[in-house]
Design a protein that fits this description.
This protein is mainly alpha-helical. It contains 22 helices and no strands. The longest helix is centred in the middle third of the chain and has 34 residues. The chain is globular.
């Protein structure tokens, strides 16, 4: 008789290849495993364990409530005029340099990432506006505008808040607040590296220098953007000041974005808000299915002792902690070419965590390494979700965008090397606010 675990893995792979949601595929494979085990060991397994594990994991995961709330906050900012005002502010800051709109793209992603926590929200919202500016009058090719937009959107889930960090906290039992803090310096490093690439490309291709915003206009532009700029301050100040949990901060972010969009800027109609709620519910629902399926599948993996077997295999290889991290980076980067980032965090990372602990690697540091790998996977072919999103915005073939995105991928690899092999660079800020790791 074929091994139930092998059959469940085959079923998951087949369903995923035929376009079934990864979450539903994992739940179906897990249920097949439990049914087959119940047939062999009727007293040891019960198929109802699958739904029970999923429901317990979802109901006990209070932190998971932050995900739909961060999605709602990002969507509200996209339908209101917040994104436009933030973009004008960024243009006033860095638009005057050669390749200025490319720098605006980078800076706007850094600022927007302090509000949304999602790479997709960054690319769809702020990215769509910046692409329009860059391609207007033929200043930049659509392929380059799309490539830099996709690349800079990867910063969104690294600088706090971060939906992938919340998912990692779920599977690793680490503090969301410390994970958010650990993402600050790496996110800024990634943004700096992409700004450097844009500067070098602008010099080589002779990109235009945009008209500088007069100094007299800067106070007005800053004043218009100030309420939006205060959102990350309120969000992170509340978390690290001990006033709010990350979940409460997500609720505050959504309420604040709605308040300033409706009352102060008067830029959101009831119809637009209703459509935002519907779209946000669909996005949150798809993430919920992925989480539920992963919780059930992780139970199966645990029953099969996969983490322990992997830990024994790695121990036999006698890898150093740095060697282990290098191997993990290669594994995650390869998986990122074909698997969505959230699935990597929820499926692969739980298998690796026992080995990470056995190696003495800090789990907060490892979380940042894992999430950065998952975000780079969003722009690596052939899957590259962000590549398809910006391709849809610009109507450029994905192949052309891939040619333009490689310099940014290389820059992100360089940033990943620093993040991986210099743990103190990642952990200095969490330690500053009380982390003992």
């Amino acid at each position: 008789m074929t091994d139930p675990f092998t059959l469940s893995m085959i079923l998951i792979a087949v369903l995923a290849l035929f376009g079934v949601s990864v979450g539903l595929a994992m739940f179906s494979g897990s249920l097949l495993y439990l049914i087959m085990k119940d047939a062999v060991l009727p007293r040891g397994f019960d198929p109802s364990i699958g739904p029970e594990q999923m429901l317990q994991g979802l109901f006990n995961g209070y932190t998971l409530l932050a995900i739909p709330l961060f999605i709602l906050a990002a969507d509200i900012m996209n339908i209101g005029s917040l994104a436009d005002r933030l973009l004008r502010f960024c243009q006033a800051l860095v638009g005057r340099f050669r390749g200025g709109l490319g720098h605006v793209n980078v800076v706007s992603s850094v600022i927007f990432s302090g509000m949304s926590g999602s790479a997709v929200a960054d690319a769809v919202g702020m990215g769509k506006i910046v692409i329009g500016l860059m391609t207007r009058d033929g200043k930049y090719s659509p392929a380059y505008a799309a490539a830099i937009t996709a690349a800079t959107a990867t910063v969104g889930p690294i600088i706090p808040p971060s939906i992938p960090m919340v998912l990692y906290a779920l599977v690793s039992d680490q503090s969301v607040g410390y994970l958010f803090a650990a993402g600050m310096a790496p996110g800024l490093l990634m943004a700096f590296m992409m700004g450097l690439v844009n500067y070098l490309v602008a010099r080589r291709r002779g990109f235009p220098v945009d008209d500088a915003v007069p100094a007299s206009e800067l106070p007005r532009v800053t004043k218009e953007a100030f309420p939006a700029l205060m959102l990350p301050v309120i969000l992170l100040g509340g978390i690290y000041g001990g006033v709010m949990t990350p979940t409460e901060a997500a609720a505050v972010a959504a309420a604040y974005a709605l308040m300033i969009s409706v009352i102060l800027y008067r830029s959101v109609s009831f119809k637009a808000f209703w459509e935002t709620l519907r779209a946000g519910s669909r996005s949150a629902g798809s993430i919920g299915v992925l989480i539920g399926g992963s919780i059930t599948f992780n139970y199966v993996i645990t029953r099969e002792d996969v983490p322990d077997q992997l830990a024994m295999l790695l121990a036999s290889l006698d890898l150093s902690p740095m060697g282990f991290l290098l191997a993990v980076n290669l594994l995650l980067l390869l998986l990122g070419c074909v698997i969505e980032g959230g699935a990597i965090i929820l499926i692969v990372i739980p298998i690796l965590i026992p080995s990470v602990q056995a190696m003495g690697i800090d789990l907060v540091h490892f979380g940042v390494v894992a999430v950065v790998n998952a975000m780079i996977g969003l722009i690596t072919p052939p899957y590259g979700l962000l590549l398809f999103i910006v391709s849809n915005v610009t109507k450029e073939p994905v192949g052309k965008i891939i040619k333009e995105v490689w310099p940014f991928i290389i820059a992100l690899f360089a940033a990943l090397a620093v993040i991986t092999f210099v743990p103190d660079f990642v952990l200095w800020f969490p330690r500053l606010i009380g982390y003992q790791g």
